[in-house]
């Protein structure tokens, strides 16, 4: 059996995989977690029922709607930190204040920013017949407060899927 990331490294990591919708958070997060031998959690699955109802009726969430959800994800990061285990959680984290809430669960939170151009992401969404409209994607890019190098590790998603996974794994392994 292959060693997990925690077994190979002296330090466990809590990792936020962030980016706009369609950047590949879930697909990439699952593949990276499998490669390094840790848990992947899709943050969207932790939205409370009232958020799901609001989104299902076609309304966007506001910062107040997101706060409790982000606090729950921060608690998840905190539980993994207390257990000294590595975990990857996918969450758009579009605004710095959202990422600040998530860091309350782990001040040393590592952030992988899945960075791609609008046209590339729109093309990929259209190829897979994603439900997201160009207007919604535009809104995501308008909301995005892209993290700087001091806050996150930018991952270029214009490369092949395998290359993106390699970039993520190499970035995490280089942190030790």
Automatic annotation (TrEMBL):
Reactions catalysed, as given in the entry: D-gluconate + ATP = 6-phospho-D-gluconate + ADP + H(+)
Gene3D superfamilies, per database record: P-loop containing nucleotide triphosphate hydrolases
EC supergroup of this enzyme: transferase
Matching InterPro entries: P-loop_NTPase (IPR027417), Shikimate/glucono_kinase (IPR031322), Therm_gnt_kin (IPR006001)
Annotated EC: 2.7.1.12
Keyword Protease found: no
Pathway(s) it belongs to: Carbohydrate acid metabolism
Alphabetical list of Pfam families matching this protein: SKI
Record's keyword terms, sorted: ATP-binding, Kinase, Nucleotide-binding, Transferase
Coiled-coil intervals, chain numbering: none
Family, similarity comment: Belongs to the gluconokinase GntK/GntV family.
Protein's recorded name: Gluconokinase
């Amino acid at each position: 059996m292959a060693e997990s990331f925690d077994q190979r490294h002296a330090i466990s990591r809590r990792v936020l995989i962030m980016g706009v919708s369609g950047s590949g958070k879930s697909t990439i997060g699952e593949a990276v977690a499998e490669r390094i031998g840790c848990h992947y959690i899709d943050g969207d699955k932790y939205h409370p029922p009232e958020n799901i109802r609001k989104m299902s009726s076609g309304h966007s969430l506001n910062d107040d709607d997101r706060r409790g959800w982000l606090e729950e994800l921060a608690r998840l990061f905190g539980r993994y930190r207390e257990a000294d285990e590595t975990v990857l959680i996918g969450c758009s984290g579009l605004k710095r204040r959202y990422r600040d809430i998530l860091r309350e669960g782990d001040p040393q939170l590592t952030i992988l920013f899945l960075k791609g151009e609008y046209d590339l992401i729109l093309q990929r969404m259209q190829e897979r017949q994603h439900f997201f409209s160009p207007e919604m994607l535009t809104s995501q890019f308008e909301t995005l407060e892209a993290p700087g190098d001091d806050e996150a590790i930018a991952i270029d998603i214009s490369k092949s899927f395998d290359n993106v996974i390699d970039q993520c794994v190499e970035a995490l392994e280089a942190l030790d």
